[in-house]
UniProtKB/TrEMBL annotation:
The keyword NAD applies. The chain crosses the membrane at residues 499-520, 532-553, 559-581. It comes from the Eukaryota. It is found in: Membrane. Keywords: Membrane, NAD, Translocase, Transmembrane, Transmembrane helix, Transport. Its main location: membrane. This is Predicted protein. Residues 207-413 form the NADH-quinone oxidoreductase subunit D domain. Belongs to the complex I 49 kDa subunit family. It is a multi-pass membrane protein. InterPro entries: MFS, MFS_trans_sf, NADH_Q_OxRdtase_suD, NADH_UbQ_OxRdtase_49kDa_CS, NDH1_su_D/H, NiFe-Hase_large. GO terms for cellular component: membrane; mitochondrion. PROSITE patterns: COMPLEX1_49K.
C-alpha cells in the first residue's frame, strides 16, 4: 500500500483506534524505520495494511489487527529510528541525534557533529592575528570574553609579553561575569525545557564602560546573590525538577576522565579539576575560591555545581574589585598596540606604527604554543603555530562542548532513559555547536604536576636542587678535618682515605636520585631549560663549597662543629621538603583524585 493512501487514511479517521495509532506510528517514522516496522505478510495473516477503508478498521478489535505480544511480528515493530533535530527548540544550537527507540525508551543515541561547522580554524589562517580575534566571539555567544581570552593568551605567549596587572584584573572580572551569564542561561533554559515555565529572574541590562562601571558592578554583585537564592528556592527543592534530573545521565569519574570531560561535566562526577586552580592564568592565583564538586554525576549534581559556581564567581568578582588599581591596560609597545591619536599628530613613527598595525598587523616570532583556560562550559584550549609572519600558520581550537556531545552516547547506554529524558541530557552539557572543532582534544589529567602553576613548579625544583646540593656539600666538608679525626681515633691513612672517598661518592650518588624524576614530572620538555640549568649547578657547586666551608670550620673550631653544621643544614632542607615538595607522579595523583 502506498504512503499516500496511508496518509489519506490517517487524515480521514475520526476515531483513535489501536489500528489508526499503528498507522500513524509507521507514517511518522523514517522510511528505514517504517520498513523495519512493517510485519511480514505470511500466508493467512492479516494486518492493518490489508484493509483499505476506515470502516473496515473501525469494526475490528485491536487483537484482530495487532500481532500477538512476543511474536516475531511484534518484535519487528518494537525498535524504530527517529531523528532528534537538527533544528529542535530544546537543542539550543544545531544538533542532530539519531535515536533508536523501543516505544518511549531510548536504546541508542548517535550524535551527529558538525552541522554548524563553518571552517573557523581555516578562516583564521587567512587573517592577521588582530583580524582573527572576532571569530572566537562566534564560537559560543554566551562565552564571548573567555573565548577571546584563550586566544589572546596564546598570542601573548608567542610574543613573550605580559599585559599590565590592571588589564589582568579586568580580564578576571569580566571572565567571571561571563561565567555567571553562561550558567544563568544553562540553568534557566534547562528548567524551561524540562517543563518549568515560571520566570525566576528579571531582564538584565547592558552598560557601556563609563567611569563608574566598577561601582555598578559592585552594586550588581551585592544584589545578584539574592537572585541566586530565588533560583534555588524555586528550582532546587522542586519535586518535579528533582524527579526529572536525579539519576538522569549519570557519569562516573572514570568515564568523565576517559571521555575528556571538563568543567561542570567533570566536577559533577566528583573530580575537583579547575584550570583556574591547577594552572592559574591572569590573576587567579591571587584570589580565593572553592571548587564545587558533585557525588552522583547526574544532571541534578551538575545543576547544583552550576549554582554554587555562580556564588564562587561572585566571591572572585568581589576580590577583584578590591584588588584592582588604576593603571595601564595595554602593553607599552607601539609595534603591537596602536599609539594614542594625540601622538600620531606629533610623531611620524607613531603614525607609521598605527598604519602598519591596521593595514598588515604585527608579526609574531616563529614558534608554537598551547593556551588553556577554564571556560564556563569546561576547559577550552587554543593551539597556535606561528611561522614568523603576520598570520597564524595553524590555529586549532579545543572546544569543551565537543567532548561532552561526543560522550552523550554512553550516558544513555544500559540505562532506561525515556524520550522525555533526552532534553534533560541534551541541555546538561549546554552545547552551542558553533564551537565544535574536528581535531585537537587536549586535557590534562586530574592532578597532573605538569599543569601546576609556575610558582609551585619552581618550589619543587628548588627543593630537589637543595637536596642535590646539600649531599655533596655534606660529603666533601669532612675532607679538611681528616687529620683531626685520624689523630683522635687513631686511624691509619688507608682507612681514612677509603672512608673519605666512600662518603663523597655516596653523597654525590644519593642527591640526584630524587631530583631527576621530579624535574621530569613537573616540567614539560619545552620548559625544562632553566630548571635543568639550575638543577645542574647543585652537583657542580657542592664539591666546591663543601671543602671551603669545612676548612673554615676546622680552623676555628673542632671537627665536631662540622658535623653539627651539616646536620642543621640537612634539617633545614628536609623541613622545607615537607612543606614545598609534593607528590609529582601523575598516575598516583590521578588515582588519588578519583578516590
Amino acid at each position: 500500500m502506498s504512503s499516500v493512501l496511508l496518509r489519506s487514511l490517517a487524515r480521514t479517521t475520526t476515531r483513535t483506534t489501536p489500528a489508526s495509532r499503528l498507522l500513524r506510528r509507521n507514517i511518522c517514522a523514517t522510511p528505514v524505520a517504517r520498513r523495519a516496522a512493517e510485519p511480514s505478510l505470511e500466508e493467512g495473516a492479516k494486518t492493518a495494511f490489508d484493509y483499505h477503508t476506515v470502516e473496515d478498521l473501525q469494526h475490528l478489535d485491536a487483537s484482530e489487527i495487532l500481532p500477538t505480544p512476543g511474536s516475531k511480528e511484534d518484535a519487528k515493530m518494537r525498535h524504530f529510528t527517529v531523528n532528534f533535530g537538527p533544528q529542535h527548540p530544546a537543542a539550543h544550537g544545531v544538533l542532530r541525534m539519531i535515536l533508536e527507540l523501543n516505544g518511549e525508551e531510548i536504546l541508542r543515541a548517535d550524535p551527529h557533529i558538525g552541522l554548524l561547522h563553518r571552517g573557523t580554524e581555516k578562516l583564521i589562517e587567512y587573517k592577521t592575528y588582530i583580524q582573527a580575534l572576532p571569530y572566537f566571539d562566534r564560537l559560543d555567544y554566551v562565552s564571548m570574553m573567555t573565548n577571546e581570552l584563550c586566544y589572546s593568551l596564546a598570542v601573548e605567549k608567542l610574543l613573550n609579553i605580559e599585559v599590565p596587572a590592571c588589564a589582568q584584573w579586568i580580564r578576571v572580572l569580566f571572565g567571571e561575569i561571563t561565567r555567571i551569564l553562561n550558567h544563568l542561561m544553562a540553568i534557566l533554559t534547562h528548567v524551561m525545557d524540562v517543563g518549568g515555565l515560571t520566570p525566576s529572574s528579571g531582564a538584565s541590562k547592558t552598560f557601556d564602560l563609563p567611569h563608574g562601571l566598577l561601582d555598578d558592578i559592585f552594586k550588581w554583585g551585592t544584589q545578584f546573590s539574592s537572585r541566586v537564592d530565588e533560583i534555588e528556592e524555586v528550582v532546587t527543592g522542586n519535586r518535579i525538577w528533582k524527579e526529572r534530573t536525579i539519576g538522569i545521565g549519570p557519569v562516573t569519574a572514570k568515564q568523565a576522565l576517559d571521555h575528556s570531560f571538563s568543567g561542570v561535566m567533570l566536577r559533577g562526577s566528583g573530580v575537583a579539576w579547575d584550570l583556574r586552580k591547577v594552572a592559574p592564568y591572569d590573576k587567579y592565583d591571587e584570589v580565593e575560591f572553592d571548587i564545587p564538586v558533585g557525588k552522583n554525576g547526574d544532571c541534578y549534581d551538575r545543576y547544583l555545581c552550576r549554582v554554587q559556581e555562580m556564588r564562587e564567581s561572585l566571591r572572585i568578582i568581589s576580590q577583584a574589585l578590591n584588588k584592582i588599581t588604576p593603571g595601564a591596560v595595554k602593553v607599552d609597545d607601539h609595534k603591537l598596540v596602536p599609539p594614542p591619536r594625540a601622538m600620531m599628530k606629533e610623531s611620524m613613527e607613531s603614525l607609521i606604527h598605527h598604519f602598519k598595525i591596521f593595514s598588515e598587523g604585527y608579526s609574531v616570532p616563529p614558534g608554537e604554543t598551547y593556551s588553556a583556560i577554564e571556560a564556563p562550559k569546561g576547559a577550552m584550549g587554543v593551539y597556535l603555530v606561528s611561522d614568523g609572519s603576520n598570520r597564524p600558520y595553524r590555529c586549532s581550537i579545543r572546544a569543551p562542548g565537543f567532548a561532552h556531545l561526543a560522550g552523550s552516547y554512553f550516558m544513555m547506554r544500559h540505562v532506561s532513559h525515556f524520550f522525555t529524558c533526552l532534553v534533560t541530557l541534551g541541555v546538561s552539557p549546554t552545547c552551542i555547536n558553533r564551537d565544535l572543532p574536528w581535531c585537537l582534544l587536549v586535557l590534562c589529567h586530574a592532578g597532573r604536576s605538569e599543569c601546576w602553576s609556575y610558582g609551585k613548579k619552581w618550589a619543587a625544583t628548588l627543593v630537589v636542587s637543595s637536596f642535590t646540593f646539600i649531599s655533596p656539600v655534606s660529603s666533601s666538608m669532612v675532607a679538611p678535618a681528616t687529620e683531626q679525626i685520624a689523630t683522635q681515633f687513631g686511624m691509619t691513612s688507608e682507612v681514612l682515605s677509603a672512608m673519605t672517598v666512600s662518603i663523597f661518592v655516596l653523597g654525590c650518588a644519593v642527591g640526584p636520585l630524587v631530583g631527576g624524576g621530579v624535574r621530569g614530572d613537573v616540567w614539560r620538555a619545552e620548559e625544562r631549560e632553566r630548571a635543568i640549568a639550575i638543577y645542574s649547578l647543585a652537583p657542580l657547586l657542592g664539591p666546591v663549597v663543601g671543602p671551603v666551608c669545612g676548612g673554615w670550620i676546622a680552623e676555628r673550631s673542632t671537627w665536631r662543629w662540622m658535623f653539627w653544621a651539616t646536620s642543621v643544614a640537612d634539617a633545614v632542607v628536609q623541613i622545607s621538603g615537607f612543606f614545598f615538595l609534593q607528590e609529582t607522579y601523575a598516575p598516583l595523583l590521578l588515582m588519588r583524585s578519583l578516590r
